[in-house]
Design goal:
Low-confidence stretches: none
Helix content: 25-40%
Number of strands: 14
Oligomer: single chain
Length: 319
């Protein structure tokens, strides 16, 4: 554990101590001449220690202990969007689901001899997350996934990456270097991710991202559904619906946006320019990303309003 100075280098501190120390010794020998040798040199030594302590404080001295072992915490996305994938690399008898295939990958990557840079005391742990996060394996030299709990609540209520990062940070032990591996499809919709990333940055814990990408063909997905963060009462606003088509040709169909209420749901007027309420809007989606804007009339009630977008193709085989 070497002693380091943060504010100026060691040679500056040594020169300052030599100069001030020489002055203290000279003045001590002159002013303390009436004392006995033992008392005189004791007083000079105390003064030198005070000067040394002041220089260390001004220099920002600190003991730094460097760890040689690495501790990796894997943040594993176990949300419903992952569970719904039915075709994936490595599918076989020992991997009946994406989660089992990911577990097999984590074990193989952390096995002894898998990486020449891996040392014997390096450790790996696993945190899985859906709408909340849980510790599946505490950091250990071997990844042990034999005893895992069951998820409570519905699996499709959301994905909270921030909770996984925060839980992973508090699970890491203080006697090793730290690193995180985030395996996710990027569909996070819960938690304050920016605050969690700032917390990891403050603790100097790097996060590597392993994206789980989908290769979905002949489908239409609601890629984004955005609304203003806040609006005044009795003020209209726009909803923006981004639809992504993975079809190679244009796809026609109808778009419907529903306002979710306490007693049920109601259709929004998709064409305010007409006198009647049009519950649907005919759209033709080109391959790739398509954007639609829906006008929401003034709302009489305060609080949070929830909406849902549904696209129904004319040809069911196209979505």
């Amino acid at each position: 554990m070497p002693l380091e100075l943060q504010h100026f280098p060691w040679w500056v501190a040594l020169l300052a101590f030599a100069g001030l120390g020489g002055l203290v010794v000279f003045l001590g020998l002159w002013s303390l001449a009436g004392l006995g040798p033992a008392r005189k040199w004791t007083a000079i030594a105390v003064r030198l220690c005070v000067i040394l302590l002041l220089l260390l404080i001004l220099g920002g001295a600190r003991w730094e202990r460097k760890h040689e072992d690495l501790e990796v915490m894997v943040l594993n996305d176990a949300s419903a969007s992952i569970d719904n994938v039915i075709d994936y690399p490595g599918k076989g008898k020992d991997a009946a689901s994406v989660q089992q295939a990911l577990d097999r990958y984590y074990r193989a990557a952390s096995a002894p001899g898998a990486d020449k840079a891996k040392k014997g005391n390096d450790r790996i742990g696993l945190v899985s997350f859906r709408h909340y996060a849980r510790v599946d394996a505490m950091p250990n030299t071997d990844l042990r996934l034999d005893a895992r709990g069951t998820w409570s609540g519905r699996p499709d209520v959301g994905t909270d990456v921030a909770a996984a990062i925060q839980l992973g940070l508090v699970t890491l032990s203080p006697d090793a270097m730290h690193r995180m591996l985030l395996a996710t499809d990027g569909n996070a919709n819960l938690g304050d991710l920016d605050a969690a990333l700032k917390l990891a940055q403050d603790q100097k814990v790097p996060i590597d991202v392993m994206p789980l990408r989908y290769d979905v063909r002949n489908d239409v997905l609601v890629d984004r559904f955005s609304a203003p963060e806040w609006k005044r009462e009795n003020e209209p606003f726009d909803l923006r619906v981004a639809l992504r088509s993975t079809n190679a040709v244009p796809v026609s169909g109808v778009l419907r946006v529903k306002h979710l209420l306490a007693g049920g749901e109601e259709d929004l007027d998709m064409d305010p320019s007409t006198a009647k309420v049009d519950a649907t809007r005919r759209v033709t989606l080109q391959p790739g990303l398509n954007a639609e804007t829906v006008r929401v009339p003034p709302q009489q009630s305060a609080g949070v309003h929830r909406f849902r977008a549904v696209f129904t193709p004319d040809d069911p085989a196209a979505a």
